[in-house]
Design brief:
There is one protein chain. The chain is of the alpha/beta class. It has one domain (about 5-244): TIM Barrel, CATH 3.20.20. The chain is about 40% helix and about 15% strand. The chain contains ten helices and eight strands. The chain has helices at about 20-30, 45-55, 80-85, 95-100, 105-120, 130-135, 140-150, 180-190, 210-215, 230-244, and strands at about 5-10, 35-40, 60-65, 90-95, 120-125, 160-165, 200, 220-225. An eight-stranded parallel β-barrel has the order 1-2-3-4-5-6-7-8, surrounded by seven helices. Strand 7 (about 200), helix 9 (about 210-215) and strand 8 form a beta-alpha-beta unit. Helix 1 runs parallel beside helix 10 (about 230-244) and helix 5 packs parallel to helix 7 (about 140-150). The longest helix is centred in the C-terminal third of the chain and has 14 residues, at about 180-190. The structure holds phosphoenolpyruvate. Phosphoenolpyruvate (PEP) binds next to strand 8.
Length: about 240
């Protein structure tokens, strides 16, 4: 069985102006030949400029969402082809903020993933339970159900990464216990269609807790929100992943 690739992915969400590209440049200088993949997903307005800023470096650039259609009358939306054309290599899909704010279902995510794969993008598919679902003992049912319904056929380790992001841990400073992360990641490893698929943990990953999280079995990296905005913080997380 092939080993899953290690990946540190940063989700800038709706943060970042052109001046912030210096953080991407600083990261590229700090990690000329990293021992893991490094990905930054800025807002769509910065993808092209960031791809240019880190051209010929180890830093990869990705989008945060895409439409399921190639083109057409979808005001304000962006197709997977457009992301690829702007310099993106990955796209985050099914982030809990999109599932909540835009009522995206797992079926929607699968349709977007199909379009992304057709455009040559690697998808980072997010799954995760709410606090109420965890309290009700439904964590594995929810996460495995989202996994089953969000992945199109022909999803492989080459075109798909999974991010387990408990909704209650995102942007809250709260992280699950070792055992809680381990339980979900072990279940995901057993359920993914390709055992070599990378499994990221996301939810309040910081320089101070990254090493502990990366030491957990079946955790191949992280999807990082707030701590990915500054090269110094994200760099410390990347260094922890390289050492894991
Ligand atoms: C995220 O938005 O994917 C995330 C994990 O955010 P944070 O690291 O800020 O909790």
């Amino acid at each position: 069985m092939a080993n899953a690739c290690k990946l540190a992915a940063g989700n800038w969400k709706m943060n970042g102006l052109r001046a912030d590209l210096l953080e991407a440049r600083a990261l590229a200088r700090a990690f000329p030949s990293p021992d893991c993949g490094i990905l930054l997903c800025p807002p769509a307005t910065l993808i092209s400029a960031m791809a240019e800023a880190v051209r010929n470096t180890a830093i990869m650039v990705g989008g945060q969402d895409c439409h399921a259609r190639e083109n057409g009358a979808h005001t304000g939306d962006i197709s997977a082809q457009m992301l690829a054309d702007a310099g993106a290599r990955h796209v985050i899909l099914g982030h809990s903020e999109r599932r909540a704010d835009h009522a995206e279902s797992s079926g929607d995510v699968a349709a977007k993933a199909l379009a992304a794969h057709a455009a040559g993008l690697v998808t980072i598919i997010c799954v995760g339970e709410t606090e109420a679902e965890r309290d009700a003992g439904k964590t594995l049912d929810v996460v495995l159900g989202q996994l089953r319904n969000s992945l199109p056929e022909k999803s492989t380790a080459a075109n798909t990464v999974i991010a387990y992001e408990p909704v209650w841990a995102i942007g809250t400073g709260r992280t699950p216990t070792r055992e809680q992360i381990s339980e979900v990641h072990d279940a995901l490893r057993g359920a993914v269609p390709d055992a070599a698929m990378s499994l990221l943990y996301g939810g309040s990953v910081k320089p101070g807790n990254a090493a502990e999280i990366f030491a957990i079995g079946n955790v191949d990296g992280a999807l990082v929100g707030g701590a990915s905005l500054k090269a110094e913080d994200f760099g410390a997380i990347i260094t922890a992943l390289e050492a894991a």
